[in-house]
Design brief:
two-stranded antiparallel sheet
Length: 196
């Protein structure tokens, strides 16, 4: 992938705008985008990112969550758009049928507009994210505060104490919701604590 494409992809999928600020000296590793069909010049940068999502994010994240959530309540779910014939047809469509003027799933939306009220189509996604930000200000506050104590961060030596404590302070005062950024830091620190 080109440097610009790689930068864009990282920005789209990472919770951290500048991860090297939190982990001084860190060098971002190559992504799977770099390994995907580098010899295929027929794929646009957007198609390469779509391919990466199809091969990683969809099966490893979205579909796994749907499967676990439905099976937990004895439901069997189906994803009709994942039928191989539909997926092959969609992949063969020109890119501007998939994404046009900042609108994703453009051709699918055009079909839906014939049958479904626009207010049900043109609305923000409603994901199933865990309210980490709220939990870190509530029931997990003491646990997180202990792990994010400045002296502990300094002793760890891996993370930038000033950056992390600044995020924690802003999160606790309500100036920003840094829950998604702090969560991997907390998991790392909790893991380190479990080793000692």
């Amino acid at each position: 992938a080109s440097a610009d494409t790689d930068t864009l992809h990282r920005k789209l999928v990472s919770r951290w705008r500048f991860p090297e600020a939190a982990v001084p000296g860190a060098v971002p590793p190559p992504t799977m985008l770099d390994a995907l069909a580098p010899e295929r010049g027929d794929l646009s940068d957007m198609e390469r990112m779509m391919q990466l999502d199809m091969l990683t994010y969809l099966p490893d994240d979205i579909l796994a969550k749907v499967d676990r959530a439905t099976m937990a309540v004895s439901l069997e779910s189906r994803a009709p758009l994942l039928d191989h014939r539909v997926a092959e047809f969609a992949w063969a469509l020109p890119i501007d049928f998939k994404h046009r003027a900042g609108v994703s799933k453009w051709v699918l939306r055009q079909v839906l507009y014939r049958h479904v009220p626009p207010k049900l189509i043109d609305r923000p996604k409603m994901g199933f994210e865990v309210p980490i930000g709220i939990w870190l200000k509530g029931p997990l506050r003491d646990w997180a505060g202990d792990l994010l104590a400045r002296e502990r961060l300094v002793a760890d030596g891996m993370l930038a104490p000033d950056v992390i404590t600044h995020l924690w302070s802003e999160h606790q005062t309500g100036r920003a919701n840094w829950g998604a950024q702090l969560w991997p830091v907390l998991i790392y620190l909790d893991w380190r604590a479990s080793l000692s």
